[in-house]
Amino acid sequence: MSTLETYEDIKEWKENDISNHLSDTISLNTFHDAVMLKVFELAVSRLNMEKPPCNFCWFIAGSGGRFEQGLISDQDHGIIYESFTEENRNYFLKLGKEIAFGMAVVGYPYCKGNIMSSNPLWCKALDEWKEQLYSWMKEGSWETIRNLQIFFDSRCLKGEEKYIHELKAVIFDFHDKNPCLSRRLMENVMHIKKAISPLGQILISKTGEHQGSIDLKYSAFIPYVNAIRILSIKEGLLETSTEDRLRKLSAIDQYKKLLEKSADNFRILLQYRLSLPKINTYEDTHFLNVNNLNHEQKKEIKRILKDGQNLHNYVVNLIKKDVKYGI
Fold it and tell me: Total structural domains in the chain?
């Protein structure tokens, strides 16, 4: 790897080398991490300061936070800095804007939901973050609970990992004192895209450029990701990847039987996504053409979709029962 002096240099390196990291999701996401860290380092250098004015954590969220990015991924990131001063605020917001710009040049599209370090909502001092998380949980609206879930999937890519742990402890403490938070989390993700028809057929797109395909993101991944995230908050787990969460949850007697196939199912889904041909846009990473599958693969996908729906329904009913009995 030659010297990477511009975002265009990083983009060229990414485009030339990413094909060497498509054997599995871990290799691909390790490469994404390396690319994003190069963007961060260049962004810092472009602000013409020797170093940031205080300790900080630059975190990534979404699929990146869960270590589950595909070939193309949009931006989801934020900053936690040690303490509030006007100098710190101005510096990190400026840095956040530079990071978002650099990421876009390198090939990570801007987040449509504005979950980026350039947004003051996602770039705050540690104490401000604590107040914000508490406010999100107390309000409990669809938007604030969605933000909470996005944050819960975050992991530190540069800086002080302990800040993330400290903020997640705020979530766990609130949940322990207010179990109804699980209900609000569940209500936020209760409606999932149906993947199987009443007659047991895979539901595919009937028209458009993805005709004949299933939406892997909303029909396949989301039921697993959402259900496992809720259980992880309920059980106080710090892990961010769905596979790591599954490993921890499967060691709990209550979930052993429920999750016995889930880890393998999720790993297979990740491999199917890596196998997709002709990926040109972020949207393309979500659609799997059923016509390209053989008979055994179709049976496998159908089983995984059904298991995902069953897992989702189990967690919904579990939370309803817990809230009903005040657990």
Answer: 2
CA–CA separation, 6 vs 46, rounded Å?
A: 10
Alpha-carbon Rg of the chain, whole angstroms? 20
Buried-state track 236-269, b at ≥16 Cβ within 10 A, e below 16: ebbbbbbbbbbebbbeeeebeebbeebbebbebb
Question: What does the pLDDT look like over 230-263, one tens digit per residue?
Answer: 999 999 999 999 999 999 999 999 999 999 999 9
Q: Is the pTM of this model over 0.90?
A: yes
Domain stop point among 148, 177, 206: 177
Helices 222-235 and 161-177 sit at what angle, rounded to 10 degrees? 80
Name the burial class of residue 66, with classes exposed (0-12), middle (13-18) and buried (19+) by CB atoms within 10 angstroms of its CB. Answer: buried
Same domain, 114 and 255: no
Burial 194-226 (b: 16+ CB within 10 A, else e): ebeeeeeebebeeeeebeebbbbbebbbbbbbb
| Backbone φ/ψ region at 252: left (φ over 0), alpha (ψ -120 to 50), beta | beta
- pLDDT band (50, 70, 90) for residue 195: confident
CA 246 distance to own-chain centroid: 15
Q: What's the domain range around 54?
A: 7-177
User: Could you tell me which residues are beta bridge partners of residue 57?
Assistant: 80, 159
